[in-house]
Amino acid sequence: MQALTFETIAEAAGIAETYARTAVEMAMIGDSRGMNYALRQAAMAIASAADVAATLRPSGSRGGA
């Protein structure tokens, strides 16, 4: 079960990375519509990865140091 969870997180993070790189390219060419779309997609992918990662925390843990 945990291996699948890590695979899911890795996939979502990879998708976020791809969209973040696309956002950079769109910003460099001045394409605000493409940049905004790519940033929204990257944010959704990161949020998805974070949601899945939260399932790995021990119950009662608030994260942080």
Amino-to-carboxy terminus distance: 26 Å
- Helix/strand class: mainly alpha
Anisotropy-based shape: elongated
Summarize model confidence as the mean pLDDT: 92
Looking at how many chains there are and whether they match, the oligomeric state comes to: single chain
Total strands: the figure is 0
Order of helices and strands: HH
How many helices does DSSP assign? 2
Radius of gyration (Å):
15 Å
Could you give a short account of the major beta sheet? none
**Unreliable residue stretches:** none
Q: Which range best describes the helical content: under 10%, 10-25%, 25-40%, 40-55%, 55-70% or over 70%?
A: over 70%
Strand content range: under 5%
Please describe the structure with a list of short key phrases separated by commas or semicolons.
65 residues
Write a brief caption for the model.
The protein is mostly helical and 65 residues long.
Describe this structure in words.
The chain is mostly helical and 65 residues long. It contains 2 helices and no strands. The longest helix has 28 residues, at 2-29. The chain is elongated, with a radius of gyration of 15 Å. The protein starts with a helix and ends in an 11-residue tail after the last helix. The mean pLDDT is 92.
